[in-house]
Amino acid sequence: MAILECKNLFKKYGAVEALSDVTLSIDSGRIIGLLGPNGSGKTTLIKLANGLLMPSSGEILIDGKAPGRESHAIVSYLPERTAIPIWMNAKQLMDYYEDFYADFNRSAAEEMLEHLGIRPNQKIRQMSKGTREKVQLIMVMSRQAKLYFLDEPIGGVDPATRDYILSTIISNYNPEASVIISTHLISDVEKVLDDVLFINNGRLMLQTSVDQIREEKGMSVDELFREVFKC
Amino acid sequence: MLKKLLKHEFRATARTMLPMYLILLVASLGANLTTRGLLETEYPILDTIGVILVMLFVMAIIAVCVMTLVTMIERFCKNLLGDEGYLSMTLPVSVHQQVWTKLIVSVVWFAATAAAVVIAFCIMAFDLGVVKQALDVLVGLLRELWQNMSAYYALNGTAIVLELVVLVVVGLAANCLRFYAAMALGYSFANYKLPLAVVFFFVIGGVEKFLLSLAMNLLHIVNVADLFDQILIQHPMTMTHTVFVGCIVSQLILSGIFYFLTTYCLKNRLNLE
Amino acid sequence: MHWQFSNDMPIYTQLIEQIKVAIVSGVFLPGERLPSVRDLAVDAGVNPNTMQRAMAELERDKLVFSQRTSGRYVTEDHMVIHALKADLARIHVARCVEALERLGYTREDILDVLTNSLKGE
User: Fold this and answer.
1) Which domain holds residue A173?
2) Considering the domain boundaries, does residue A123 fall inside one?
3) C-alpha span between B130 and B138 (Å, rounded)
4) Is residue A109 part of a domain?
5) Mutation test of the interface with chain C: which of A188, A211, A215, choosing the one with the most C Cβ atoms within 10 A?
6) What is the value of ipTM here, to two decimals?
7) Measured distance CA(A171)–CA(A181) in Å, rounded
8) What is the average pLDDT across A198-222?
9) Of A5, A80, A94, B253, which has the fewest CB atoms closer than 10 Å, so is most exposed?
10) Measured between beta carbons, which residues in chain A are less than 8 angstroms from residue B85?
11) How far is A24 from chain C (nearest CA, A)?
12) Band of the pLDDT at B36, cuts 50, 70, 90?
């Protein structure tokens, strides 16, 4: 069964259509790029999947159920913003994740934090913006979830951090899970993806595999993207 | 999960409230020096210190009360509707559990603050003579209470105390929920979230006043005042209970409406930035 | 190991090619145990599923074999490696010839160019 399914999904903000008639289905065991220009509806789709927005019409299902407390238990979500409470220290943050998520692998998180040189009693408030983002990613990837949503994980970070983030995603990837990565920086994530979803103006333009694009068109996803979204 | 939410909510709020209580304790100890005769010496400097200590004590009391209110508002606003909402609202818990957690913890802190202020006054006034007097009064009260309990009015007396406690708790809850509903409504819009929340708070208050005056007028029209007077004279206890229970029920109804508004907005109109 | 990817071919075919070169050139020795798919994927910065697919292909070509419990190994059959080496050489020569022909060299000229170039070194 599909881990994520959208059926004629619409989301309107007043008169503006943020998502328009999106129908798609995503199976387990894939790493999927949700690709589109800024403001194309990527974040709206991810928020809908996490129950942070309600659809205007249509349906979105996680493992066959509407987003809610059951889906939250199997979905690990990296929002675009830093959402971890900054007054906590690293240890308190792990306590928090461990208490609420049965699938949280504490030793994995501890190892990754130690690798970054973060002490358990270090307050998140005292960390740089980049470090906070890394800590948040570590928390998200330390869960053994069935579905991961990573909203712009590499937006606005330096190349070294980008490599760190991508290798953290790869090394924690569990082949039974699916990972959805939204980004507009395609060339950076291309090697990591199985499939791509092209989205523009709230509409799904293309759902295909990276190999297929390269085999059939003889070009990279990045090149195809530039062609499709040429201004 | 409610237990875990409560645990983490207390953890998050205690880091502001406990230091506040500590400040209050220190301030009341300072004020205690004043009551021990700092103002009655012939040294003007000690006079000044005494006045400052009393002022600090008053300020500490105000600060504790204000911080309790601010913490209640801030926890809801920041933790559920701000950036932290991306984490809080995607925990495997229900919206109801979230709202109940905030509500229970806030009511507990309000009660704790009330207790802390009472204790602070006791500390300020702590003096052997005063304590002896206070103990005498307390013993007297207890004796009286015991007599009353064992007397004819026993049941009524206990019931009224219980009703009062329930009314205070329900009233506190209704007040918290009024803030929650206003914030949940205001933050469901894309822009001007905080100003709208303030507007909604006053709109809700206005609607309440309007409905209350409407009810009063209706009562006036059917001329219940005379009826009430008669009951009050003939069955004073019945009347007291009726008023208490009436207040409790009205606060419960208000709470219910605010609770519904809050959870409806959090579920269906959540709109995180 | 250094990995490099071009845009015009599927990632998994490029992975296969580069692992083959690594086997022939002795980066991975015959009979040597290969790192896990996950570690290789992290090292190359690619999707573990893609690395898995490349490994499956290499296994089909008998260049690597897996032992159920202990992991995946490079083949010990020197004949297979030798044949692979010859294969890769043919591919590189063909590419070289193609490039020179595009520059206008005839087959005879190409031989001269190559001989001179090798002597010069």
Assistant:
1) 4-82+145-228
2) no
3) 12
4) no
5) A211
6) 0.94
7) 15
8) 91
9) B253
10) 52, 83
11) 21
12) confident
Residue at A177 is within a domain: yes
What token pair was written down for C20?
A: 């083959």
DSSP alpha helices (H): ranges in chain A?
Answer: 42-49, 69-74, 90-100, 106-115, 129-141, 159-172, 186-189, 210-212, 221-228
The answer to whether A171 contacts C42, with C-beta atoms less than 8 Å apart, is yes
Q: How many domains does chain A fold into?
A: 1
> Which chain A residue lies closest to C37 (C-alpha atoms)?
A171
pLDDT band at B127, cuts 50/70/90? low
Helix (H) or strand (E) holding B230: helix B224-234
Residue A13 belongs to a domain:
yes
Looking up tokens 């004043």, which residue turns up? B34
Mutate to test the interface with C, among A32, A191, A213 (most CBs of C within 10 A): A191
Report the DSSP pairing between strands A195-200 and A31-35. Answer: parallel
Q: Which of A192, A211, A223 is the closest to C10 by Cβ? A: A211
Q: Do chains B and A touch (3 or more CB pairs under 8 A)?
A: yes
**Helices B2-35 & A90-100, crossing angle to 10 degrees?**
140
Q: What is the pLDDT of residues A102-133, one digit of tens each?
A: 999 999 999 999 999 999 999 999 999 889 99
